[in-house]
């Protein structure tokens, strides 16, 4: 970054053409009237320099903080003495002081003499004004490459600093004129601001910064590129060069930034008034939300420009129309991409292609491809629109896509072809992938889309599990029918055979990812346990006395252990199912009514869907429990419902156990 301070030595009285006592008195009047003596910018402030007591000795000309050599020479033979000489030498600040001195000398003179001399002063001030404005117009005359040329920078900043000093000095003189109600106001500060406004407008109309090869871009995109590059390079010159020519309180970097911001904004408004094609629409949104903020985040600019104060580059009414057009296009493109992927899967099914195997599992690229589309397009839309909420809208067609995916799965199940199970296993992998992104990256989707999609995926998973397990249950039905019978109670080998047959049948569930396999095994574990309880509560076995009931307790407890061990080995995570059987076994063992009541209350707390019908069926197995005692035990179940259940894990199981 170019940094520096530009200092100007104050010319001696002789150099200013006021070497005599009377002339020194005149210059003193200038300083007294303006409230400021001639000086230099030091870190943006105009510092007074004390004159020596003997004017013939001159002032200290040693450098201040290594300032450049003085523009003035001390040789009296070449000293500048008149306004014209100061003007020609571009000592604009000093020339303005001469005019102020001449104006101040008119005080007390006769009206005719004052009018005559004031006419000359006004003419000279007009001439100086034009030169000041020409100097201001050259503020951005350096190319970006010339900023590295110290001589070029020095030549510009010295004369610009002098011009700026003159403008700010004249602004103070205008205040005095207002207070004393004399003379005509110069309004140089206003002219300075309007000149910079015109300068910025001209540079944005005619960018001089060369544009890189942008083949294939529209005229609109090329125009915006040109304005953007011009804006960036000019603001860097302002920060690195022009800032040092102004006092700190001028906040010149912010002033220029506001001019460029307003200019670019006005041009973009005109552009978006026309019907834009999708590429130009996207390009403008990216400029507003990505490229332009990126320019202002440049470290050199960010420290000098308050971007918040600049406001939006385009008002909401313009942005809303652009965003609607862009999002509609992106939504359509995403929907087309998703449809294409689904149609490809349907083609494979119709043509009898078996799903691909990967690491021992049937797989489908459908979910992966669609997730990549969603992830990439939503992130891009967030960058383009600058809004996560807006970007999410392009996924609104995902629930419809999943509904059609669900219909495809149902058709596969209905047809039940040779590869139906393989396809369903692959689809379950897709369901898992979709569910993962919906839950782990929920920010990509609106809440309603996320909720609807998860509901569809849950249905698909249940349907897939039911299809895969239906044949397993069918093959195991002969073994199920022996549960809860007298033979089951007498022959331990019956349950052992059921376990062996289950393990064999479950081999048919291989070919899924580990997590999918674990889920279907867990569901099968719950369904087998429910089948076991349902068969037991049918009441085919009668437990007439303590001995039979103790036998049933031991059998159910061992069955619970064996079932748990098998499914634990297979990967089921539903360990709590074991507790259901052991709780039932405990009811079968207990003889005291109070003890039974306590056990039922405990079960009621743990399983809120345990009904009186279930309790009654369980107690009927114990034929030595009277009808009256059964009613007493069942009545305790309502107590369990009324009591506090805070901190107790509540599990639902019995609602699907049908009891006649």
From TrEMBL:
It comes from the Eukaryota. GO terms for molecular function: SNARE binding. InterPro entries: EXOC3/Sec6, EXOC3/Sec6_C. It holds the Pfam family Sec6. One of its GO terms (biological process) is exocytosis. Gene3D superfamilies: Exocyst complex component Sec6, C-terminal domain. Signal peptide: none annotated. GO terms for cellular component: exocyst. Belongs to the SEC6 family. This is Tumor necrosis factor alpha-induced protein 2-like.
